[in-house]
Amino acid sequence: MVIKLESWKLLRLNDKSLQDISKKLFIKTYHMKTIGLIGGMSWESSAVYYKLINERLKTLLGGHHSAKSVMVSVDFSEIELLQRKNDWNKLNKLMVNAALQLERANADLIILCTNTMHLCTEEIVKNTSIPFIHIAEATGVEIKKKPITKVGLLGTKFTMEKDFYKKIISDMGIEVITPNQNDRTIVHQIIFNELVHGKITEESKEEYKTIIKKLENNGAQGVILGCTEIPLLIKPDDIDIPVFDTTKIHVESAIKWALQ
């Protein structure tokens, strides 16, 4: 099943509430669920997922705590080639196989450490029996906490141009806009030619800032960093409108689920 985050009471608790619970209850009685991660797309952002999950959990529980987790990491070269060929049947099979590996490894929930490959959500959910936390669902819940009705979306061309991501956000009553065709190409190329290789340049940062400013001028009240590599380049202080870092949002949702 895909977890509908709005329905879980714990996910609406603030940090202090979680810390209070950890002090009063979890120290002796909590059961931490095992987070299953499908990574490698790219490994640069998967490493950030692992780091953030453990840092956040240690902040909440203190002491020597670290996350119970298992990761299946795929070869991004194979994924990228199939994406270019638009062969989503094979991509679906690869993602389902990775999810099943996590299930066999006794993971209690699955997160897919990439925005674009959520195109495979339906097949993953259909072929597994443990909960799946959708990154766009988690992001939409976070946006709804603010007085925002229109957001810009940056990501790969697949994420910006297909409806699988935008529809989830728009169904929550939030209008989603994307850059023009030329700017979408720039955003996509920087992701695949630079960010997935860990290459960060000031020139590319300025390109992104310019594109985000155009979205702001078109009415965007915030921007979704809808590719898990983009936060490597763009930070909240770089722009004037709220930034929704999907990696951090996804991590937060996974931790809250794992501790509830």
Characterization of this structure:
- Helix 2 crosses helix 11, helix 4 (88-104) packs across helix 5 (121-127) and helix 9 (181-193) packs antiparallel against helix 10.
- It is globular and about 45 Å long.
- The chain starts with 14 loop residues before the first helix and ends with a helix.
- The protein has a four-stranded parallel sheet, sandwiched between helices. Strands 2-1-3 form a three-stranded parallel sheet, with helices on both faces.
- It has two domains: 5-135 and 248-259, Rossmann fold (3-Layer(aba) Sandwich); 137-245, Rossmann fold (3-Layer(aba) Sandwich).
- The chain has helices at residues 15-29, 43-61, 76-84, 88-104, 121-127, 135-143, 157-161, 163-170, 181-193, 202-217, 246-259, and strands at 35-39, 69-73, 109-112, 150-154, 175-177, 222-225, 243-245.
- Helices cover 51% and strands 11% of the residues.
Q: Helix and strand string, N-terminal first? A: HEHEHHEHHEHHEHHEEH
Distance between the termini: 17 Å
Q: Helix share of residues?
A: 40-55%
**Number of helical stretches of at least 4 residues:** 11
Largest sheet composition: 4 strands, parallel
Structural class: alpha/beta
Q: How many β-strands, per DSSP? A: 7
As a whole number of angstroms, the C-alpha radius of gyration is 18 Å
Q: Architecture of the largest domain, CATH level 2?
A: 3-Layer(aba) Sandwich
Number of domains: 2
Q: Examine the coordinates and then state which fold CATH places here, giving the name of the CATH topology of the largest domain.
A: Rossmann fold
Strand content: 5-15%
Shape, please?
Answer: globular
CATH class of the largest domain: Alpha Beta
User: What's the overall average pLDDT, rounded?
Assistant: 90
Strand order of the largest sheet: 5-4-6-7
Which regions contain 5 or more consecutive residues with pLDDT less than 50?
A: 4-14, 24-29
